[in-house]
Every structure is written in C-alpha cells, then in structure tokens.
C-alpha cells in the first residue's frame, strides 16, 4: 500500500526574493550602504586597514582608500557577499554581548575548536568567505539557542 506523501502546511509567509548580485542595478543600489556599514564595523572592531583589506578579499591600498573616501562606488558580488557576512556577524555580536565585548570579540583569542585558540579575525582572514560563513553560522546558532 503506497504511503501518502506528506505536504508542507500552508502558510502566508513568503520569504523575500534574494537579491540578484549578478545585476549591476542591484549592486549599484546595495553597494553604498554596504560600504558604509563595513567601514563602521571595522572602526567599532578596531580592525587595522591591512586586515580590513584582507577581509574584502585582498583589496590593494589605492582602491581601498578610494572606497573609504567615496563609498558610492559599485562593488562586485564577491565583496558584497563578504560584507553581508560581516554585517551579520556585527549584528549577532551586538545581540549576544555587551557593546564592549561585542566590539572586542573579533580580536580576542577564542577557545572554540573552530578557531583553535586564534582570534576570529585571524580565522576569517586565513579562511576567507567560507570562514566568514562559519563564524556567522556559529553566532546565529548561539543567538537562536
């Protein structure tokens, strides 16, 4: 006797459409706010410019300081994705910890096996986008738990 296939319960919730980062118009719309949020987070976390450039995927000095002075530029999909993870990390830290600890957490050695005693900042610089994703998931899990 065949089993009935379970169906997902009806809901009025519809997730928002994902932004199309392949679309230049979308990137133009998102980039200025993303850069402003990125530089604000870097300042609050007291991240050195050299490390901030690494978090953006290895931006050289000239373009980095141009972004800092004129955030109206259009970023590529990779940089927008990196900034999205970092902004999510910033938000999660603000929910989980006091402002003082939230601002210092990225620079503190961490005993979580994910970091192996290193700082989350070092882990993300070494591991790039996948490491940022891991840190974001870790903090989101802590927030939900």
How do you describe this structure in short?
The protein has 145 residues and is mainly α.
Tally of individual helices: 6
Q: Can you summarize the main beta sheet?
A: none
- Regions with pLDDT < 50 over 5+ consecutive residues? none
Q: Count all strands and give the number.
A: 0
Mean pLDDT: 94
Tell me the Rg in angstroms: 18 Å
Report the principal-axis shape. Answer: globular
Helicity, as a percent range: 55-70%
Order of helices and strands: HHHHHH
Q: Proportion of β residues?
A: under 5%
Secondary-structure class: mainly alpha
Distance between the termini: 41 Å
Your description of this structure?
The radius of gyration is 18 Å and the shape is globular. The model has no long low-confidence stretch (mean pLDDT 94). The protein has helices at 24-45, 49-55, 61-69, 77-96, 99-104, 120-144. The protein is mostly helical. Helix 1 crosses helix 4 (77-96) and helix 4 (77-96) packs across helix 6. The chain is 61% helix and 0% strand.
Features:
145 residues, 6 helices
Task: Outline the secondary-structure elements.
Elements: H1 24-45, H2 49-55, H3 61-69, H4 77-96, H5 99-104, H6 120-144
Helix pairs in contact: 1-4, 4-6
